[in-house]
């Protein structure tokens, strides 16, 4: 395998370890500066140039995109994807995780624990937002902060108001988040590779510091996670579209609470504390997946006119309840079920003998007109836009 590691820090611990792990397994590997690429666009032939020369062929790419170069870095990753090169993390996944608000918006519709969070702009909405998350103390976060920077604890409502007002005056977007008191000063970092957690550590803050990040003096210890925490970490990474991720969770009284998902997790702290070859696990996973580059399914499947991807909800009064997918008549209407969502489970490529239940969601590909008739009438009325006739005059 010929691997490219995209990194602006070739001497950083994580980049060096990934390069060493790849070379020790007999792979060819190069560390390429993300900012030295030029993106070449032409009809039917997307290409990349590196340091003014056409880039040679690579089998796989491992992006290590820093927050300060997110826009350009994800553009480079996206170009590799359009060239059908396997990317351990896609541009879409990186963008989803980099924005704290965006990631929580995506996770909130799934059955995963997240701290109650509010995002407001109007000064009048600040107090109601603080009340909705459970009143002070509250956590205030910058949307794009990293390594604990831009995370503040407001002990009172007045101090929360003052902090938010100050940050907003500086054109900063902030989140107001519930303070999970039982986890004060500690959190869990789970390192997800593919569909498993390869290592985990508990980070504990020191002194009066409530942030447990190792960069802020937190002490790390290896921890064996329960199945609930492992499943939560893996699902969070997969929902956001990441194959390699650091998932940070709080230990709440009701189970794991996801704080954020990092698409370029540092390896130094977790490797030292667990004594595990995490870099090697990442390289082994990439080598196993290199023949299956990630594709934008919606983009590819919606090329055919009149066909597309849609989610069909099965309400309690649906005629489908108690019927199998075969008996539902979907196949006769040229509708294929790609994934069945039931409670917190996603069942890919479900068997046609599976019986449908109230609350099921079906991710389908097929004729849009046929699928439109299956949307409940009240939902259809809310969503159906009024189409005005075109003016024939020029």
Question: Would you kindly provide a written description of the structure presented here, covering whatever features stand out?
Answer:
By secondary structure, the protein is an alpha+beta fold. The protein is built from twelve helices and 20 strands. Strands 14-13-12-15-16 form a five-stranded antiparallel beta sheet, with helices on both faces. The chain has a four-stranded parallel beta sheet with strand order 2-1-6-7, sandwiched between helices. Strands 8-11-9-10 form a four-stranded antiparallel beta sheet, sandwiched between helices. Strand 6, helix 2 and strand 7 form a beta-alpha-beta unit. The longest helix has 14 residues. The chain is globular, with a radius of gyration of 23 Å.
Task: Write a brief structural summary.
With 394 residues, this protein is α+β, with helices and mostly antiparallel strands. It has helices spanning 13-24, 70-82, 91-98, 100-108, 126-132, 157-169, 227-240, 268-274, 278-289, 297-301, 368-372, 377-383; strands at 2-6, 28-32, 37-40, 47-50, 53-54, 60-63, 86-87, 117-119, 138-142, 151-154, 174-178, 186-193, 196-204, 219-222, 244-252, 255-262, 307-313, 335-342, 345-348, 361-367.
The overall pLDDT, averaged over residues, is 87
- Give the helix/strand class: alpha+beta
Tally the beta strands: 20
Strand order across the largest sheet:
14-13-12-15-16
Beta-strand portion reads 25-35%
What is the 3D shape?
globular
Unreliable residue runs: none
Cα end-to-end separation: 58 Å
Round the Cα radius of gyration to an integer and report it: 23 Å
């Amino acid at each position: 395998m010929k691997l490219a590691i995209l990194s602006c820090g070739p001497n950083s611990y994580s980049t060096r370890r990934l390069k060493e792990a790849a070379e020790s397994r007999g792979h060819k590997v190069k560390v390429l500066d993300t900012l030295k690429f030029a993106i070449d666009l032409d009809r039917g032939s997307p290409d990349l140039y590196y340091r003014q020369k056409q880039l040679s062929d690579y089998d796989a790419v491992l992006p290590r995109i820093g927050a300060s170069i997110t826009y350009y870095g994800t553009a480079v990753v996206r170009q590799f994807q359009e060239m059908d090169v396997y990317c351990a993390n896609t541009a879409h996944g990186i963008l989803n995780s980099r924005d704290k608000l965006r990631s929580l918006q995506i996770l909130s519709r799934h059955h995963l624990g997240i701290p109650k969070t509010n995002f407001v702009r109007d000064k009048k909405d600040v107090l109601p937002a603080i009340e909705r998350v459970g009143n002070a103390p509250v956590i205030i976060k910058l949307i794009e902060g990293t390594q604990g920077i831009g995370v503040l604890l407001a002990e009172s409502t007045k101090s929360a108001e003052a902090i938010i007002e100050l940050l907003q005056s500086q054109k900063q977007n902030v989140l107001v988040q519930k303070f999970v008191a039982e986890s004060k000063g500690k959190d869990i970092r789970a390192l997800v590779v593919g569909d498993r957690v390869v290592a985990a550590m508990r980070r504990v803050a020191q002194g009066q510091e409530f942030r447990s990040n190792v960069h802020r003096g937190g002490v790390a210890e290896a921890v064996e996670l329960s199945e609930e925490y492992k499943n939560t970490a893996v699902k969070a990474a997969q929902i956001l579209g990441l194959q390699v991720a650091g998932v940070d969770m709080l230990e709440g009284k009701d189970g794991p609470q996801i704080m954020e998902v990092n698409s370029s997790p540092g390896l130094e702290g977790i490797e030292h504390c667990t004594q595990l070859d995490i870099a090697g696990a990442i390289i082994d996973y990439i080598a196993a997946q290199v023949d299956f580059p990630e594709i934008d399914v919606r983009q590819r499947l919606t090329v055919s006119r009149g066909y597309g991807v849609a989610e069909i909800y099965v309400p309690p009064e649906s005629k489908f309840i108690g019927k199998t997918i075969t008996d539902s008549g979907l196949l006769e209407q040229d509708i294929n079920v790609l994934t069945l969502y039931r409670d917190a489970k996603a069942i890919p490529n479900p068997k046609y003998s599976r019986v449908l239940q109230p609350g099921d969601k079906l991710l389908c590909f097929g004729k849009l007109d046929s699928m439109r008739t299956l949307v409940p009438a009240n939902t259809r009325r809310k969503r159906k836009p009024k189409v005005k006739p075109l003016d024939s005059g020029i």
